[in-house]
Design a protein that fits this description.
- It comes from Phyllobacterium trifolii.
- This is DNA ligase (ATP).
- Belongs to the ATP-dependent DNA ligase family.
- It is an enzyme of class 6 (ligase).
- The protein has two domains: 66-250, D-amino Acid Aminotransferase, Chain A, domain 1 (2-Layer Sandwich), CATH 3.30.470.30; 253-360, OB fold (Dihydrolipoamide Acetyltransferase, E2P), CATH 2.40.50.140.
- The strands form four sheets. Strands 3, 4, 5, 6, 7 and 8 form a six-stranded mixed sheet that branches.
- The protein contains six helices and 17 strands.
- By secondary structure, the chain is an alpha+beta fold.
- The protein is globular and about 75 Å long.
């Protein structure tokens, strides 16, 4: 792909990211007419320390991702930009000197698990850049499906390459010697659109949706089977961590809970009937019920094998009644959808979506302060 530097550089220049070019004419070095005489150059003057340095920034090894805060209502107004909320794995793609690194939200190098995205990033070169986006696998209807992504990866531990994964890039954090995180979102988006315009392979542009009616956009996203939308303040820089500059609004109740045990299956030998779930509360966990639907037969058996290697005698949360349960270390996180909460703080009609790890900065539902 041809890098459109002629279009990118003016935007950076207007944002004070390029050093102003000098108007002075350069003096040529004069050679002596005597070919046997030694060559001499003009004496080098010490650099004036008050002179500004070139506006080139070293490429960071990693940038902590900016996170969206969960909201119940869609913000309206001209200061907001809207995008689809992708249901996959948050990734940062680093390209430098033909070396591609694909980093997860938790800082793990998963380059080998996304070969198609790696090849697509290399094809965008020779630019040096950092893309922020979400890797997804689309179903037959073109809707992101988290279960299909985990299936392609061979489970939550990622034991094989997800060749069908596509990265929808929604931010450009670094480009050709320039740290763009200080730019407002609207400028970063213009650069990103110019950079990825026309790309239809394993790296694609996450389109910004122009609308004055955010609630109508959310209704449309839900009708198409999407997870929700994200609203972002157009005039804000990129800020690592969670803030109110980015808001996520979901179509359904979908949250992550820590797995603290399981109920063995009485019908299928070596399988599970349900997972015991807990939410964060203060400095510990509180039991919020169990989920027993949404598993494939193979996944239920695989989880049983894995959880049996994590057994503990005492559960991580209190209030669990029954002797048939097996308790485990609280290191896995289950994503579930649910209808509502019961009066005693339990999930109503939960359904399993997938498994993540706490070690990868998975978000766990917090009672009394969830984000």
């Amino acid at each position: 792909m041809t890098i459109r530097r002629a279009e990118l550089i003016p935007i950076i220049s207007r944002s004070n990211w390029m050093a102003k070019s000098s108007t002075r004419k350069l003096k040529t070095i004069g050679l002596l007419t005597d070919l046997n005489a030694p060559l001499k150059t003009q004496s080098i003057k010490p650099r004036d320390k008050r002179q500004p340095q070139l506006a080139l920034d070293p490429m960071p090894a990693r940038i902590e991702p900016q996170l969206a805060t969960l909201a119940t209502k869609v913000p309206n107004g001209g200061g907001w930009a809207y995008e689809v909320k992708w249901d996959g794995y948050r990734l940062a793609v680093h390209a430098e000197s033909n070396e591609i690194r694909i980093i997860t939200r938790g800082g793990h190098d998963w380059t080998r698990y996304f070969p198609a995205i790696k090849d697509a990033a290399r094809a965008l070169g020779p630019a040096r850049f950092i893309l922020d986006g979400e890797a997804v696998v689309l179903d037959d209807k073109g809707v992101p499906n988290f279960g299909l992504l985990q299936q392609d990866l061979g489970g939550r531990r990622a034991t094989r390459a997800a060749n069908r994964a596509v990265l929808y890039a929604f931010d450009l954090l670094y480009f050709d010697g320039h740290d763009l995180t200080g730019l407002e979102l609207s400028s970063r988006r213009r650069l990103l659109k110019t950079f990825l315009e026309g790309e239809t392979g394993a790296i694609r542009l996450s389109e910004e949706i122009e609308t004055d009616d955010g609630p109508a956009l959310l209704r449309s996203a839900c009708a198409h089977g999407l997870e929700g939308i994200v609203a972002k303040r157009k005039d804000r820089p990129y800020r690592s961590g969670r803030s109110l500059d980015w808001l996520k609004i979901k179509c359904s109740n979908s949250e992550s809970f820590v797995v603290i045990g399981y109920e063995p299956s009485l019908l299928v030998r070596g399988s599970i009937a349900s997972l015991l779930l807990a939410a964060r509360k203060d400095d510990g966990f509180v039991y919020v019920g169990h989920v027993g639907t949404g598993f494939s037969t193979k996944l239920a058996r695989d989880l049983r094998v894995q959880l049996d290697g994590m057994r503990v005698a005492v559960p991580a949360a209190s209030g669990i009644k029954g002797k048939k349960y097996v308790f485990v270390e609280p290191t896995l996180v289950a994503e579930v959808t649910y209808g509502s909460w019961t009066h005693d703080g339990k999930l109503r009609h939960p359904s399993f979506k997938g498994i993540r790890e706490i070690a990868d900065n998975s978000e766990i539902y917090t009672i009394g302060g969830n984000s």
